[in-house]
């Protein structure tokens, strides 16, 4: 980790926190400290805000093609450094190297996608219905942005926000999660190398999020907040954004239903379940939480899923052959343990896993629970761990009602071979995304986001850049 920056990145320069504070970064596989990074306070936040505000006007005037080429160069640099970045991610958040390399490719693709969108920003023109005025519509950047990213996909969540902001002509302050600051600092270094002007991206690492973020949101100079994280924190940030009427986009929590009908191809369903549940050790907002399986196939589905889950190898992400790394920290593991214990006390049957191993690290085994009581705590919260909870159902209306019985609505998964049922059920699910006979929905070219308490707005796809643009309407009299 010695070559990775550990200082704040403000105005194109690396700097210690104003008060000299630092914070440790732990390896969740061992509990050992792998680095100390600058721990920003309120003064550092103001400096980053000054840099972003000062750079905004010039950056907004930069030619779209120039912005596009910076993103394209950064895309290529990221791919060139795949192994370096993958090892960095594995060290700070635990995912196996194979998954980390996959995230590097996924993260890079956001920069390639938005490099192409940067040159497609357009407006419109026409005569208004009364014939008196011409209407000219132009698009312009919303202004300086605060981007807050989570720890579970530390590189990809950064590029998913930074990419459209750069493409639209916005300057930024990036505040990464305190558990995984190193990936964001490495990304800042890459963008500087790619030619991003000073002050366009500023990275503020901190364990003092309230001290850093609240003044920025209430001050009026930050015009856009993009946040990925828990619903509870998102609600707090929305309240703080209201005073200055900051534009917001929120990618919040999920409680994804995974529905397997009696006519489903069980091989496809189990493959999909492994993707939807075990990506990132289950630490994903898109992770399948509640497995609703038709009673006629529930036992067989549980048997097959248990065999696949039980065959996964748990261990440090850097070790060859490991499929499942540690959870992010002991707090995360304790939460999973408590949820499983509650379900078992309520009568759930443990088909595989269910007990954390002894020794160092924050490991938890892939676990399948059957006959789960609908009142179990894990039915009403994000598990954020490798636990699949199976509940049997009898008819379509019942399962849709149960799937929608949650304040969240990010993603749902449906497995059936019937086209009519597939479309009907998908349309009735109260979610922003549906995986139909697949356990993976995320793609930089598709709009990512949810409904209800799962968030506001969309990231990725053609609409992703819209979150960072405003319309201006110009009325011109018809002579």
TrEMBL record:
Keywords annotated in UniProt: Oxidoreductase
Gene Ontology biological process terms in this record: gamma-aminobutyric acid catabolic process
A GO molecular function held by the record: succinate-semialdehyde dehydrogenase (NAD+) activity
Pfam families: Aldedh (PF00171)
CDD domains linked to this entry: ALDH_F5_SSADH_GabD
InterPro entries: Ald_DH/histidinol_DH, Ald_DH_C, Ald_DH_CS_GLU, Ald_DH_N, Aldehyde_DH_dom, Aldehyde_DH_Superfamily
PROSITE patterns linked to this entry: ALDEHYDE_DEHYDR_GLU
Domain of life, source organism: Bacteria
Family recorded in the similarity comment: Belongs to the aldehyde dehydrogenase family.
The protein's name: Succinate-semialdehyde dehydrogenase, NADP-dependent
Species this chain originates from: Streptomyces lincolnensis
